[in-house]
């Protein structure tokens, strides 16, 4: 039955409209945090709440729950783990209205919060600066690694 639904969905979506929703989320949101109401976002107010389902289970969907047309945080979002080394963290999920066959694409931008302290490879540094050092002279220090920056 699910295979038939997916085949019909693929054929149907080539002729039907799709809705694209863009949402920005901060990493580290609490489990259960409200993300969006699909009925309101798609103007499908006459659709039953359980009419929505994931199009195909993707890895990113584990972070969300879909219940009664409401998407909530299901698992802690960790930007550094989800998009290591990338400046932008963009993820996508797809949901479909079973009744209207409307494909809903939700593009998420995951914002970083500064949740990691810098790490220094050397725990102690000693630098001698002479009294006669000129103003404006720069001294090279060992760099820190910051997991919050790409």
From TrEMBL:
InterPro entries: Cadherin-like_dom (IPR002126), Cadherin-like_sf (IPR015919), Cadherin_N (IPR013164), Protocadherin/Cadherin-CA (IPR050174). Residues 67-120 form the Cadherin domain. It comes from the Eukaryota. It is a single-pass membrane protein. It is found in: Membrane. It holds the Pfam family Cadherin_2. GO terms for molecular function: calcium ion binding. PROSITE patterns: CADHERIN_2. One of its GO terms (cellular component) is membrane. Residues 1-16 form the signal peptide. GO terms for biological process: homophilic cell adhesion via plasma membrane adhesion molecules. Keywords: Calcium, Cell adhesion, Glycoprotein, Membrane, Signal, Transmembrane, Transmembrane helix. PANTHER family: CADHERIN 96CB, ISOFORM D-RELATED, CADHERIN-87A. This is Cadherin domain-containing protein.
């Amino acid at each position: 039955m699910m295979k038939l639904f997916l085949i019909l969905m693929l054929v149907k979506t080539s002729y039907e409209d799709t809705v694209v929703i863009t949402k920005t989320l901060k990493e580290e949101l609490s489990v259960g945090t409200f993300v969006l109401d699909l009925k309101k976002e798609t103007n499908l107010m006459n659709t039953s709440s359980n009419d929505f389902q994931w199009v195909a289970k993707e890895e990113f969907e584990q972070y969300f729950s879909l219940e009664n047309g409401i998407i909530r945080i299901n698992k802690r979002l960790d930007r550094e783990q989800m998009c290591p080394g990338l400046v932008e963290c963009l993820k996508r999920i797809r949901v479909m209205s079973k009744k209207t066959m409307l494909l809903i694409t939700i593009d998420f931008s995951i914002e970083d919060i500064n949740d990691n302290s810098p790490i220094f490879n050397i725990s102690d540094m000693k630098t001698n600066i002479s009294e006669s050092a000129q103003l404006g002279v720069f001294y090279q220090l060992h760099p820190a690694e910051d997991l919050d920056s790409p």
